[in-house]
Write a structure and sequence with these properties.
The protein has one domain (7-93): Elongation Factor Tu (Ef-tu), domain 3. Helix content is 21%, strand content 36%. It has one helix at residues 74-93, and strands at 7-10, 28-32, 37-47, 50-59, 69-72. The chain starts with 6 loop residues before the first strand and ends with a helix.
């Protein structure tokens, strides 16, 4: 993330998968076109029942109530999804 300051962003809904149960979290971005803002999500964690998007602003900023477009990295999620499914299959077989 270079010299960017790390923040945590809380959304009312998210399509990002948080790190849990041995699975890696999604990465991606949150953006607001009207404000020309972009937040790079490097990690997603669950804290006291809340999903926190951890990362840094690369453009602009966000404020409470802003609508954002949440885009996870599909190329990273694909192998994580396959690993998750494989774990379930292995657990059933054992």
């Amino acid at each position: 993330m270079g010299n960017f300051i790390q923040f945590r962003v809380l959304l009312d809904k998210t399509n990002f998968y948080a790190e849990q149960g041995g699975q890696e979290s999604d990465t991606g971005s949150l953006s607001n076109i009207e404000k020309n803002s972009k937040f790079d999500v490097e990690d997603v964690q669950v804290y006291k029942g809340y999903v926190l998007h951890v990362g840094a602003f690369t453009e602009g900023r966000l404020t409470i109530g802003d609508l954002v477009f949440a885009a996870y990295d599909e190329l990273l999620r694909w192998p994580i999804r396959n690993n998750h499914t494989g774990t379930h299959i292995l657990n059933i077989a054992l």
